[in-house]
Amino acid sequence: MVDGFVDRWNEKPHQPSFLSKIKDAGKPSEGLKKQISAVLQRLEIQKQKLNNAQSRFEQRDAALFKRTVKALEDRDTMRANVLASELAEIRKVEKMLLHASLALESISLRLSTVSELGDVVTVLAPAAGVLNNIRSGLSGIFPEAGRELENIGTLLTDIVSTTHQDTGVPVNIGTASLEAEKILEEAETAAERKLKAQLPEITTTAPTQEKTRVET
């Protein structure tokens, strides 16, 4: 009898404690981790595509800017205005691409830190909202990226819905929307700051010729 009691006592430490079971219950399952990992990979691919597209537009930007300067130097104000207008449109696209890329980067950072089931809902719900927002802006100039971001956003929404059903963790739509707006605002501010630092300003005012002073 004593031996049996000792045996049971020795076996007990090898069993998961009640506290560890509760702790593990709050962590994402392996299946959920794989889903998030797949989302991160797809986001990285889209971010790289956006960066490549931005590089192409930056090259066009530089070429157009030189042509605009040349037209001003030649006193061809009408042509300079046309080129400057085209350049302004290109810079709108550059800003949109950079904004989207920075937003995806912010989402990726948030997803990579998910360690608790509660985080899944609070992080993925606003992420889906951000993707939906930037998708609508990109669809007109980058349809392929728009479609892929829509698919990823749908996947995130499905994960949030499944997590809510399995755990009962409530989805606060208002909070998710505010967090999504915060991510977009931060990305837009960063995009504006980066473009302002990188790109020279456009002007259609012809440079004034300097008067040559003749020394007597």
The number of helical elements comes to 7
The residue-averaged pLDDT reads: 78
Radius of gyration: 27 Å
Helix and strand content put the structural class at mainly alpha
H and E string = HHHHHHH
List strands and helices in order, with pairings.
Elements: H1 2-11, H2 18-25, H3 30-73, H4 77-112, H5 117-138, H6 143-167, H7 173-198
Helix pairs in contact: 3-4, 3-6, 4-5, 4-7, 5-6, 5-7
Describe this structure in words.
- This protein is an all-alpha fold and 216 residues long.
- The chain is built from seven helices and no strands.
- Helix 3 (30-73) packs antiparallel against helix 6.
- The chain is elongated.
Task: Please describe the structure with a list of short key phrases separated by commas or semicolons.
216 residues; mainly alpha; 0% strand; elongated; disordered C terminus
Short description:
With 216 residues, the protein is an all-alpha fold.
